[in-house]
Amino acid sequence: MSPGLTGEYDQARREKAGEHQPPPPPEYMGLEGEYDQLGLAKRVAEAFEQAPHIDEIETLQICQDGNTIVLKGSVSSQDILNALEGVAAKVDGTKGVDTTEVTIAA
Question: Rounded to an integer, what distance in angstroms lies between the CA atom of residue 80 and that of residue 57?
C-alpha cells in the first residue's frame, strides 16, 4: 500500500487498519482504521479541522472518488484553496485533489 501524494503515512491508522482482515486500502481507511467507503473524505475533513491556518469553510463540500479528493463549492481566495489542496494532499491515501468545482468568491 502506498501513501498519499506527499509520501506520508498515517502510521497509527495503518496499525489500526492492520487489525482488520483484510485491512482496507488507504483510501477506504475510516477514522479508526476500519473499512469506510468515504474514509478518505472523512479523514481530509478531519485534517481541515485540525489545520491551524484554515478557518471553518461552510461553503465547501469534500467528496471522494476512489483515491481522489474532489472539493466543491466556494472559498474566499486562491490562497485558501491552495492551503486546502496542500492539506488534502498530505492525507494518507490521497492520490489526487480535484478543485475544478471550486469557485473563488469575491
Answer: 10
Q: For residue range 30-75, what is the model confidence (pLDDT) as tens digits?
A: 999 899 999 999 999 999 999 887 877 888 999 999 999 999 999 9
Extended beta strands in 14-78, E state:
60-65, 68-75
Q: pTM of the full predicted structure?
A: 0.87
Residue/partner pairs of 25-34 with CB below 8 Å, 24 or more apart: 25/1, 25/67, 25/93, 26/1, 26/2, 26/67, 26/92, 26/93, 27/64, 27/66, 27/67, 27/93, 27/94, 27/95, 28/93, 29/92, 29/93
Rg of the Cα atoms in the chain:
14
